[in-house]
Design goal:
This protein is an alpha+beta fold and 255 residues long. It has a single domain, classed as Glutaredoxin, CATH 3.40.30. It contains eleven helices and six strands. The chain has a six-stranded mixed sheet with strand order 1-2-4-3-5-6, with helices on both faces. Helix 5 runs antiparallel to helix 8 and helix 5 crosses helix 9. The relative contact order is 0.18.
Length: 255
């Protein structure tokens, strides 16, 4: 799936009331090849059957609370955790991608727990290609995430954004809804954050982050690399327990 042509799509359960968007996603997926774990495709059978196999679990509260985050020297990557952590999980996501939400509620929970222990740092690249070059949901959500970083609340807020995808209110991630989500993160709302959301203050950063995603060579999201090795198994990406095992054992080498 080429980053320039990504259709807007989400897992089946996130589309119960979005038939028009489903039809558009199906049409686009028929025109271009997509990864089985990518935003615009259907997960493998074992990854979409039941809440346990899919990894679509409800993340326990508190795993992201207080996690430090800062902008890396490249100006686009957001680093969550200790910069000198011995292991690195590199994550590329688009705020409107349902499979990214699926990862955040699965493997992302294991990452958050490991970050909290200081053994892992997570490096996020926030893409916005699902907007197709417009100022729409992905751009607005990415801007709000960057604003949350300035307030020391990136980890908690990005969790709230992805957790909200099951809500019909999340359609398009309007400014009003992004502010509503921010109200659920203690200490985030305030004049500076609200102004940044309303005025798209970090629009230039959003564009730069999208360019960084394209330059990375990745063609779909979620893209997850552990210590430089890409994780492509949906059963691992979307399951907190299996991803935790991977973090403890390492990513198997490809034959």
């Amino acid at each position: 799936m080429a980053a320039q042509e990504h259709p807007r799509a989400r897992p089946r359960h996130a589309h119960r009331h979005r038939s028009s968007r489903v039809a558009a996603a199906v049409l686009a997926a028929g025109l271009i090849g997509v990864s089985a774990t990518a935003c615009a495709s259907t997960p493998s059978a074992s990854a979409e059957t039941g809440t346990t196999d899919s990894g679509r679990t409800t993340r326990s509260a508190g795993h992201t609370s207080g996690l430090p985050a800062a902008l890396a020297e490249d100006g686009t990557t957001i680093v969550v955790g200790k910069r000198d952590a011995p292991r690195t999980v590199r994550i590329s996501v688009d705020p409107q991608c349902g499979y990214c939400a699926k990862f955040e509620n699965g493997g992302g929970e294991a990452v958050a727990k490991a970050v909290a222990t200081g053994t892992v740092k997570a490096e996020y690249t926030i893409a916005s290609f699902l907007d197709r070059g417009e100022v729409a949901g992905s751009t607005r959500a990415a801007n709000a995430m960057r604003a949350a970083l300035e307030q020391g609340k990136f980890a908690e807020y990005q969790e709230a954004v992805f957790a909200a995808q099951d809500s019909e209110e999340a359609e398009g991630f309007t400014d009003a809804f992004l502010l509503k989500l921010a109200s659920r993160v203690p200490g985030l709302r305030g004049a500076a954050f609200d102004k940044a959301v309303a005025e798209l203050s970090y629009g230039d950063w959003v564009e730069a982050s999208q360019r960084a995603f394209r330059a990375s060579g990745e063609e779909s999201v979620p893209s997850v690399l552990v210590d430089g090795t890409k994780v492509e198994d949906a059963d691992v990406l979307f399951h907190a327990g299996r991803f935790a095992e991977l973090l403890s054992q390492g990513v198997p080498s490809r034959p």
